[in-house]
Specification:
The chain has 31 helices and 34 strands. It has about 775 residues and is of the alpha/beta class. It has 3 domains: about 280 residues, Rossmann fold (3-Layer(aba) Sandwich); about 210 residues, Dimethylsulfoxide Reductase, domain 2 (3-Layer(aba) Sandwich); about 130 residues, Barwin-like endoglucanases, CATH 2.40.40.20. Helix 1 runs parallel beside helix 3. It is globular.
Length: about 775
């Protein structure tokens, strides 16, 4: 059944008190309401009852791990996963008539919400130079247009091949293979903007860029830290694991700039206690920290642990672990004792008593996990912060054993798998050597461009072709105005996509829309039905089988598009069997098994219930570091600074949002309804800055260049943010993130540490006043 298009909602802002718990019956209700508004009852039943099941559809949303086969609930999904899967399964369609009626420039003025609501893309489209409209094009001509443009470049490094975490392992492997066979390592991806910081810090200290814990570890942990993350919105199924941890006697410490509902209490809708009871209290300790204060916090905890060992030698630190498995302890300990308490308390806005309470929790715990997300990584000093977290874990031997370890929580379905498959501009030589041995060509060795460097290269006219495998690069990237202008300097941009977004309205001279199958859809190739594989945040690789009829007979799979394009571009210059890869994805997996450690006998092992658990060397006591051991590090104290009259702004997602795309204009857990252009400010800061609730302001970025960065017409909402800190929605405030404001070492944009000033402005004509419920 074809659904009617939606229209822009009423933008009146209504503010209610923030929720004190997450999930429960409302989560089920909202999930079903959204799903049934997008898809039919049979379609909704098929997607929800097969999602995250053995031989089912892997949730295209977050990367949280599934319980073991036989232990999964029949409804093994969360509210946001249900919304996302049925947003893809929508009955709405975009045809050539839509593009005939709407110019590219008009579409660019529409909101992210409206663009997404128009439905699935159904046939290849091209915007030719000088035109403001997309028009139909055949697959043969579309791929030929890209291939000819690539072959005309003066250097392969004039092309960029971008991907997001929606891509499967098979399509990601083909993308990086195509790019390297073409001759470039320009392979930026969404990891550059979310967990690149984690990868650099963990590689340096532990020798692996991945977390060291699995789902079962959460059940066994005595203490879990949740640092700079909001599970209820960004990976809601984590709450079920935390609930089990609590039921098993574990404690949880949450560290955040906002008191989020999911960090307070969880009502599991799959349990009676979550339907008619009070649910489970999540946080035993909530540290309401200043933005960017996490480095100072762990430096304070580590200093207290060293002092506790001094007071009772041999009873606090795990000296056997430190001696056998680590290096650099003495240098670290000497430095850790020099960080001043004045600095720690200023950076965190916590009291020493609060940090000592955390130390006491740690001393009572034998097994500790630290989870973190972008509240940590999107800071200038994010890499030192993650290194200091690793220092903390090593002090008491909380690595390489059950119920303990490091857990960078990835938010996008296969973002970790993309990196495993080689989508990185800096892949090491052993991977490139394996490619060369397998396929007989010499991959380029010079490091390519990450996301920030790619934008700068486009802005300078050094990039002519931008190919994107999924994603919404122009909205996810920082410094929106500069990014948009950079993209428009390309000769050709091409987007492999399922739905419409700003990625299709900010284009090069020539632009192509290459519509592809979604993960929910049946993928039939020359040898029959295909499945794809993905890797979750616990390094488990498993299958995903599409269940729905494709939205259009003209759709191709991501893998098919890339294989055909590679074949057309390379003209047989490299001996890679692209046609065989397209015909049977098992052929791709066979080659992966020869190249990437842990994937031996890939085709057989991955189809077993539960799939493949990739080895983690840390859990085997192996550290591929400069010293061959886990490395303690000395991390200079650092904190975010905001001059008088300014605030430190963090970007955030609403509950009804997936990555850059909002599903509604509501954020019910935070009590925001009907509008996204709001800024949450501490009431005491409002008084100091002379602001009133409901007042309109323009937000100006404060940076040491002469570029004016501003977003207009935001409404001030009083909210219990940390003093001196504010929050607003992503991607609406991405224009305020300077392209040069990046994390040291990792070059990741600092979207959680933006210094801004607020200037009162008048309400736009016809604007309705905000309505606040006490």
């Amino acid at each position: 059944m074809k659904k009617a298009p939606k229209h822009e909602p009423d933008d009146r802002l209504t503010v209610t008190p923030p929720k004190k718990w997450a999930a429960g019956v409302p989560a089920v209700t909202h999930a079903l309401e959204y799903s049934l508004d997008e898809a039919t009852v049979p379609t909704t039943a098929k997607t929800l009852l097969t999602m995250n099941q053995v031989s089912g559809i892997d949730c295209p949303g977050c990367a949280w791990a599934d319980p073991a086969p036989g232990q999964r609930h029949m409804n093994e999904y969360c509210e946001n996963g249900a919304k996302h899967i049925n947003d893809e399964a929508t009955g709405r369609r975009i045809t050539r008539d839509f593009f005939r009626a709407h110019s590219v420039s008009w579409l660019n003025e529409q909101s992210d919400l409206w663009l997404n609501q128009q439905g699935r893309l159904t046939e290849p489209m091209v915007k030719r130079p000088g035109s403001d409209y997309y028009e139909p094009i055949s697959w043969h001509d579309a791929l030929g247009l890209i291939a000819d443009e690539l072959k005309s470049l003066d250097s392969p490094d004039e092309a960029v091949f971008y991907t997001s975490g929606r891509a499967s392992n098979e399509s990601a492997f083909v993308l990086q293979l195509f790019a390297r066979a073409f001759g470039t390592n320009n392979l930026p991806d969404c990891s550059n903007m979310c967990h690149e910081t984690s990868g650099f810090a963990l590689h340096e200290t532990l020798g692996t860029g991945k977390g060291t814990v699995g789902l079962e570890d959460f059940y066994q942990a005595d203490l879990v830290f949740l640092v700079g993350q909001n599970p209820a919105t960004n990976h809601p199924r984590q709450l079920s694991a935390l609930e089990k941890c609590k039921h098993n006697g574990g404690k949880i410490i949450s560290v955040n700039t906002l008191p989020e509902a999911g960090l307070i209490r969880f009502k599991n809708p799959q349990e009676i206690s979550g339907v008619i009871g009070n649910g489970t209290k999540i946080s035993d300790v909530f540290l309401h920290i200043r933005s960017g204060g996490d480095l100072a916090l762990f430096q304070g905890i580590n200093r207290l642990l060293l002092e506790a060992e001094d007071a009772a030698p041999g009873t606090v630190l795990d000296h056997d672990f430190i001696s056998a498995h680590t290096s650099g302890f003495e240098e670290f300990a000497e430095h850790a004792r020099t960080v001043s308490w004045d600095d720690i308390l200023t950076a965190t806005q916590l009291t020493r008593q609060q940090i000592e309470e955390v130390r006491d929790c740690v001393l009572r715990a034998n097994r500790v996990i630290v989870c973190w997300a972008m509240g940590v990584t999107q800071q200038r000093h994010g890499v030192p912060t993650v290194r200091e977290i690793v220092n903390f874990l090593m002090l008491r031997g909380n690595l390489g054993r059950p119920g303990a370890g490091a857990s960078p929580v990835r938010g996008h379905s296969n973002v970790q798998g993309d990196r495993t498959m080689g989508v990185w501009e800096q892949m090491p030589d052993d991977f490139l050597d394996a490619l060369q041995a397998e396929f007989g060509f010499n991959p380029p060795r010079q490091h390519g461009l990450d996301s920030v460097k790619a934008i700068k290269a486009m802005a300078e006219g050094r990039i002519k072709v931008f190919l994107s495998l999924a994603g919404n690069f122009v909205r996810a990237a920082p410094d929106t105005h500069i990014t948009d202008n950079a993209m428009r300097r390309c000769r050709l941009t091409a987007q492999i996509s399922t739905k419409l977004s700003k990625a299709h309205t900010v284009t090069g001279e020539t632009a192509l829309i290459l519509p592809c199958l979604g993960r929910t859809e049946i993928d039939t190739q020359a040898t029959g039905g295909q499945f794809v594989t993905v890797e979750n945040t616990s390094s488990e690789v498993h299958t995903s089988f599409g269940k729905l009829r494709p939205a259009s007979r003209l759709l191709l799979s991501e893998t098919a598009i890339l294989c055909r394009l590679a074949d057309r571009t390379l003209d047989g210059k490299v001996n890679i069997p692209w046609k065989e890869f397209e015909a049977d994805y098992g052929n791709i997996r066979d080659r992966i098994s020869h190249i990437i450690p842990g994937f031996f006998d890939f085709n057989r092992r991955v189809t077993r219930p539960g799939g493949i658990k990739l080895p983690n060397p840390v859990n085997e006591g192996v550290y591929a570091t400069a010293t061959g051991k886990a490395m303690f590090t000395r991390n200079a104290f650092d904190m975010s600074h905001a001059p008088a009259g300014t605030l430190i702004l963090q970007s955030m997602r609403s509950h009804d949002q997936w990555n850059t795309i909002p599903y509604t204009d509501n954020d019910r857990y935070r009590g925001i309804h009907g509008r996204r252009n709001v800024i949450l400010v501490n009431p005491d800061d409002m008084t100091e800055l002379g602001l009133d609730r409901g007042q309109y302001v323009d937000i100006f970025g404060v940076w040491h260049d002469d570029v004016e960065r501003r977003v207009e017409g935001f409404i001030v909402v009083p909210y219990p943010t940390t003093r001196g800190c504010a929050a607003a929605y992503y991607p609406e405030v991405q224009p305020l993130v300077p392209l040069d404001s990046v994390a040291e070492i990792s070059n990741q944009p600092t979207s959680k540490g933006i210094v801004v000033r607020l200037e009162p402005t008048t309400a736009p004509p016809g604007a309705k006043p905000a309505h606040f419920h006490e």
